[in-house]
Here is the input.
Amino acid sequence: MFLDLNPTGYANTVRATLEETFPTEQLAMLPMPTLVLVGEEDPALEAARLTHRMIPGSQLVILPKAGHTSNLDCPEAFNTSVLAFLRQQEA
Here is the structure.
């Protein structure tokens, strides 16, 4: 999958990610229901946990055996989690 990426586009994405700063204190101001969904093998797991802690009332779902592309690694568990969250919001 990575081999199919445009090298220039990928390099620009990585550069922007490394240079970007995000004021996490703004997360506390999010008023909407929020699902933080992450794979347990995702290098961003700790960032997802921080995001969950910073957003009041957010729900954290950690998908076992999934990495950064949890929707591809565990599509059934990913879809089940998202649909369950959306159903909660409808209720």
User: Anything to note?
Assistant: Residues 75-90 form the longest helix (16 residues). The longest strand covers residues 35-39.
